[in-house]
């Protein structure tokens, strides 16, 4: 996902990071990553307070005294810790921590920061270094002053975290840099030596925008958290709407981009959405909307939810406003309608797991790209494409972003929609299908199928959303969705009551429900092929959709193998991987893994608070996940854990010993009474010997007066309560693809099923495909029940780097800091 090996390490770089424009949750995690990675790579790191405004204002007073090392020179193994002192001197507290919000920050906007300045920033919303709109920076004079401030502090690289406006500003600064410096030299604000030394400014953009409105990246920092806030709000509105049989019109952010509205519509099971890129198809959209919503009411729905992006337009570019929509619903459908404008609530709160991860990975990559840059490389924007952190030309990204707005202005909606990524369009299609009741004539297939839907294995967040979408898509296409209750045991049950058609209304509230509405267990078809075959025939099941984890994959695999003996298995079958462990081979993400990650992050935040409050405490947190370390590794990165243990890497005495030494050294460096506490994440199956209990006791013994330890087992809480919106939307998208696959691969049983008619839907490089069982089997480690080449495995290195373990336990800072301090 990310390269950890910069080709062009330059230990003398001075990197400066700022956040600008609208704040976005996750910006702090990005700043934290830039600071830590920058220091790790041997750079000096500065932060700018208050965005471009701070860069223009600069420092009007001098820096206070240098780092207060003496307070931090701890002892280690009873001796003076020269390694630790070195670390503290270079990495420890920078100006931020020393001065806090006190007098020292007055008149100073560009501050040198250290490792501990950004400690604990991961889970804080907004941006701690401040942001501001800055009119001066829009003018050349303002940018010249900003350039002067950078040059006078010897800074030659800038990481800008912000939206398209901020990055446009960044692009202009870089474009004008040579001429700005010429002007500064002419006016004698800088000398020729400075002019020469700073001939080149490296700029890297990291996109922080809750609207997800930047082109050339699939997602921007803050958008997933905003989606969380919206989903929480719409879920809450749903229950009151249902109680009073009301309609609600909810306005969400998105001036030029409907991502939030589409995702929220899908995740929350809304009835209608309006977005800027795709206005209603007809001029008389009011009637179109009313007809659809009336059909829902006629079907017995007690609530109506309409979501409007703030930039929604009709075909003539006339804004569609919530109050007008509410008026239409009241007048034409006599619905008791209320308007809710979510506004700034969407920006707020703790960043969700996805944002923390995204911001961390992008912050790291920003530093790498700075170090790789040469005068001939373009300024980069760090994005995410196909689940890989990517670098694209900042200039091109800024241009492409503007072109969406241009296309909308020209009423060229096809182009506007085409400029969004394919996932956006698939999600839009999924939303549309979820609102259709009667099969449209052109949709109804000649072959109407009876499609069985079954949950297999442990529950996972999003299973119900997948079932809802599959059922509704089936109904819209003229098929019969059949719920198979209680897994394969239900299928085998006498009397046949546990196999029932699902109705449109029945699944209405399932999007937001956790657990499994159908019921799930670990029984497998191989436990009784005879009964499985009989039941499939009795219920005339033409195709099967399995939703579950490794068991679901095992189930379909065995059904396929047994096809030669059982004609009933000669049907199309598909699996939607749904498990918190994320251990299904080939796929990067299974439904439920995002929910679990969020549950883990929430629990760790609470535990961290306790660890910090009691000072000097190490928590050993145990996670589920079977023999797959996904949740532990990615969770460790998203929470800022110091150490992670996984079954893939295992544990041995040497490793544990090194980790203990690291913790001792790290705690010794803390200012007495100011330690925040730390934590370790350990997957349940990392080692049979070095158990969570063992580790906790050992740390207690070894920590002596430096630290104490406690254990916390997160257990089943990781299945999560309410599924995350990302899981819900992902579940819907995968469900539609699977049903389409079942349609395409359903042949008459007599003709026999083709080999590729049994598949697992997988996300590979961010792309969705149905992988034939043979492909999945090739990538499966059946003994350990996990995939062979997990994409996230290397992320553990980042955990080590960002916790300081690499530097402190292995003495690496020596080679890094020699350059930085000279
Ligand atoms: P966002 O970055 O969230 O899109 P804005 O559009 O408000 O937010 O931009 C933030 C800041 O970036 C502005 O206040 C301004 O200082 C700077 N900026 C925006 N557009 C430009 C531009 N075209 N040229 C120079 N600076 C710009």
Automatic annotation (TrEMBL):
Its EC number is 2.7.1.11. ATP binds at residues 22, 133-134, 163-166. The active site is at 211 (proton acceptor). Keywords: Allosteric enzyme, ATP-binding, Cytoplasm, Glycolysis, Kinase, Magnesium, Metal-binding, Nucleotide-binding, Transferase. It catalyses: beta-D-fructose 6-phosphate + ATP = beta-D-fructose 1,6-bisphosphate + ADP + H(+). Allosterically activated by ADP, AMP, or fructose 2,6-bisphosphate, and allosterically inhibited by ATP or citrate. Residues 14-369, 450-742 form the Phosphofructokinase domain. One of its GO terms (molecular function) is ATP binding. GO terms for cellular component: 6-phosphofructokinase complex; mitochondrion. Mg(2+) binds at residue 164. Pfam families: PFK. Homotetramer. This is ATP-dependent 6-phosphofructokinase. It comes from Wallemia mellicola.
